[in-house]
What does this fold into?
Amino acid sequence: MPTVADSSVADPVVPPPPRSAFYAEVPRLAWALAELAANWRGLKKSPRGDGRPVLLLPGLANGDSSMAAMRLFLRGRGYRTWGWRLGVNLGVRSVGQDIERLIARIEAICAEANGEKVTLIGVSLGGILARVAAHRRPDLVREVITVASPYAGPPTATNVWRHFEFLTGQKIGDPAARAMLAEAGMPLPMPATSIWSRSDGFVNGSICQEGDREGARAIEVVSNHIGVHFRPQVLRAIAETLAGSPSD
It folds into this structure.
């Protein structure tokens, strides 16, 4: 496994999703929205929580508004939720070269929650950043849940790595970018859950999870990438994970 210090290890050959899946992403978004509307009342049967503080991290080119459905759902389950308040997620342009702005945000939430550790839920790039922050400040983080976050493999196993380069200003081959991804892929010192889909049209689902091991769990869902975080199946899996009960 690559380490932060050994970020020059050659990327394994992992293909991106087929182009047909990529082009189906937007049409499938309409279905995701319809599914959410049809199942919203049923989601109230999901387990209630313990009131812990939860920070939601949006995906690439998205901001706090994209997490509105998840935030409303988790509040309804009894959690205290916060947005990241760092604008649109443009990677290091938003969080800082050393993710110092994100860490400062987690520190502020921890203080506001009377010193209670914060649970991080990140979507796509937000999940990668969440894992890096958890590695660097385990004293602040209780648990990490990632949703469709490609932290466990090469960026070339996605159909959006060029979009990442354009929006963040980072080249995927830059030593700093490779080191950050390697850090995200290292096992976390707190409970970690990875929610992923093999039908994702943006990222190869195999690089969005590390499998099941002590302290880590992978939950497979059926979803496209855009809107994955408000799929009812995903919201239920998150509620069950936070409540400590297994997801089907």
In short: The chain is about 35% helix and 15% strand.
